[in-house]
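Sample 3 of the quickstart, ligand 1-deoxymannojirimycin:
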Amino acid sequence: MTAPALLPLSGRRIPPLNLGPPSFPHHRATLRLSEKFILLLILSAFITLCFGAFFFLPDSSKHKRFDLGLEDVLIPHVNANKGARDPGGFLIHGPDEPRHREEEERLRNKIRADHEKALEEAKEKLKKSREEIRAEIQTEKNKVVQDIKMKEKKPLPPVPIPKLSGINGGDPEDNDIRMKREKIKEMMKHAWDNYRTYGWGHNELRPIAKKGHSTNIFGSSQMGATIVDALDTLYIMGLHDEFRDGQKWIKESLDFSVNSEVSVFEVNIRFIGGLLAAYYLSGEEIFKIKAVQLAEKLLPAFNTPTGIPWAMVNLKSGVGRNWGWASAGSSILAEFGTLHMEFVHLSYLTGDPVYYKKVMHIRKLLQKMDRPNGLYPNYLNPRTGRWGQYHTSVGGLGDSFYEYLLKAWLMSDKTDIEARNMYDDAIEAIEKHLIKKSRGGLTFIGEWKNGHLEKKMGHLACFAGGMFALGADGSRNKAGHYLELGAEIARTCHESYDRTALKLGPESFKFDGAVEAVAVRQAEKYYILRPEVIETYWYLWRFTHDPRYRQWGWEAALAIEKYCRVSGGFSGVKDVYSSTPAHDDVQQSFFLAETLKYLYLLFSGDDLLPLDHWVFNTEAHPLPVLHLANTTLSGNPAVR
Ligand code: DMJ
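Result:
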């Protein structure tokens, strides 16, 4: 059997005819037939291509027809310059034919550019891993679902406005106090105006570099954190032009559909809290709408096996996770335990119980858990529902969880007895195990780590002086004791300021032998414009009217003015024990939300934001007490 001649490796690929011996006529005939078939196939493909191109290419007559159709729909009156129509509806070219050519050219270029872009995107896609592509698809799917949901959304139900008293006023009678209050307002203007000039739309400001700044808690997007955080301070100070400027930005530019991973806690206390407070103070619907839009974006963070939310959530994809540094993959007590006030208000305003249910679920779960020595550890694993490291603190990682138990009770017009009981139990355990007196007679709150008390108190823990005073009324027959405890904490924190060169407090201070209320490690000597000490002075002032609190507050204001003020705003300092401090070049958003607000309130009359009508969230955003008559969660159409 002779094999047919091999095809050449290059050149013409069609074999010569009559290749094989006559004994294989059938084979040769088959070969010829298939060759013809291939030729036919190529020819027909070519014709199809030409035919397709004829329809596909941006042919001018086709465009004219397409143009005509759209024009009929969108522009009912034919523009005289565009040429007349013949009775059949086709354009008769008039004097502006060159313009049509230009238009065709523009369209052709656009199609070319679109194709190139699509090609580039396809190339980029091919570089990505399977996982990345899958995540992108999921993100797109989520977006579609979200968009459909938003479209289906009914308008928010009308609800009764809780009693709002004291949103203006507080003018002090005393001249000296009035002058001090004016000075604080001027500081606020300096902080705001510089942010307006150099950082507008960014989350925070670098007052020395004079540009925008951000940290990972706000994700990768610029969401104007300072604008949202500062709004209610502007409002109560009567800075209405600035307030309106912020409102305009929020309406036009604040967008939560961003691919950005944010801290659920920080976004809740600063953004949702700030928007809700701005809504209640001004009555402007836009703030309520934005607060609800954002809250919806946070809800996927609760999709964990236990319902304890992740610390972070991607606003676009809804994917959540925890901080890498947290013990055993845990969520943080002060983060998942500081949602209650805002979420109850969201349910109140929307008539949708989903928010309320989320935070009540957290509470129920915590109630069921064993607590070592009656203390709540700072770490809880959202997958297993087990505590992480046994570390309890009233400063960072724990602080506002206790604050929100007390404030949940206050905000409910003292009807949420369960929250009050949890607060009382927690504070009793804290007092027993964490609160001590130093040799020099200073009361401090230490940190409990695996059965050992670390005699160190953070600046953050100084807020507890105010909390103890606020919770005194309604405690288990120990009102005097808690007011006194609050005053002692205020004194200790004041000492931590007074024992520095700048009269500003360090981030954290020790009680160790001869060391009392002083930072030891270099890394703990900074002051980043934090509010907690001034917050405590204000609460103590409201409850006692002891002039020392105004005096201490004024000392702090002067020190901030002297050492933190720069031409581009206010900056933190790196070492409060050095008389020539280096600046950290960050103007934190909480400086405008909290530090300056508490100072302003300290030099205002008690009729401004009275505490029996307003409860301040942990970022100093005032939310009204939901008085019994108004506390329907289903939305009551009676008022508004
Ligand atoms: C603020 O964002 C809040 O007060 C929070 O509860 C913890 N501390 C910062 C300011 O120090």
